[in-house]
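>> received
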Amino acid sequence: MSSDNRASEIATLLQLQASAMAVGEKLPSVRVLSKNYGASPVTITAAITTLTALGIVRAEPGRGTFVAGRDSPGTALQEPDYAWQSSALGRSRVDPNRTGRTGGYATADDVQLSWGYLSPELQPFDELRTIGSRCAKSHRAWTMAPPMGLPELRSVFAAELNADPGEVLIMPGGQQSLVFAMRTLADPGSTVITESPSYPGAIIAAQAAGLGIAAVTADADGIRPDKLADALERTRAKLIYLQPCYANPTGAILSPERRVEVLALAKKYGAFIIEDDWARHLTLEGSAPPPLFTQDPDGHVVTIATLSKPAAPGLRVGALAARGPAGERLRTARIADDMCVPALAQEISLGLLTSSAWPRHIKRLRTGLRERRDAMVNEVHASLPGARVVEVPSGGIHLWVKLPDGTNTSALTAAAQGVGVFIGDGKHYYVDEPPAPHMRLSYSAATIAQIQEGVRRIGTVL
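>> returned
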């Protein structure tokens, strides 16, 4: 029997099951249905998709699938007419396939190998609770903070960059900083160059800013300067997006030689480099290279830092540093988005970064992440025949795994979720078609036991 026929058959059975349930009642998980009907998670998902299109069930990402409302006997529900919106809205800028961050909505029964944040036991929770309680008692936490950020917090971020505090702008996290910088520094319709593969959030940030995207090949030493020169010559782009330190998803570090070449190219073509420095505090071995910002006296580099990655995902505080007229433009445009980053969040960030708890946390984090990374690498080698870790990273929170040729990464991602494991579909890290099948596995949001179990489950569907 073909998979399409099997999905249709299961859809019919599920429709009967749903008809006997109350509106709003939750259907069993894909994993349970897969076991009950003796079908693959992909087939079950296809059957649910059919019923969703018919209005019989509704799927809520991260929560499950529920029986949809049914009309009362003898009555007809008038369907709302949204057709006018299609022409009023115009073409969508942001690719919805890249925005489905389901990794954040795994249940307690799932193994989380796609979420790019720290698990609760790796976060400095006790320290944040103590500092937060103290800060909440201060009147400063409930007043309007300066639009550019608290001066003391700007000074802390500036010290890491050898920058003047006046060159630093406090932002509500790294993703907001990306969209804001791209939108402010480039006109809609212009081009941003990004290394490939790259962070999907940067791709959708560029789309939201109305920018075209040109991808340039990167390897273990970061973006290739020869290919970057070709792209700059061809596109005349004025923006380059880079992760010089522990790039997501590969973990690559831009080599010292290439740093010099990339800065020279930015100078030659009059381009800005947006340096996404999200992983600076996530070093596992050795030490992180200095920010690219520190090697640039002429204002070509605009740097983004964040506390959401090394501290806690709910601490949406970061910084953006820029020099010259570009810095002035960014600081002037900031107030158009919101009046300020909440003062309480800034006070907590300042308290954490200036306390003795911060270096202790970074030391514990280094050990915890290194142990998880090593466990994941060993389990990939043991449980995923034909898969290969492209490069064991010396920092960051991700493994970039090359899969056997011919692997359908979308099907694998769905099948893995069907057995309760969340992974990153490798094709979402490329602007264009991927040259080979990959998946991204994150080792920061799960325990060692969960990592080992999760990778074994991937092996059963791979």
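>> The CA atoms of residues 75 and 351 lie 61 Å apart.
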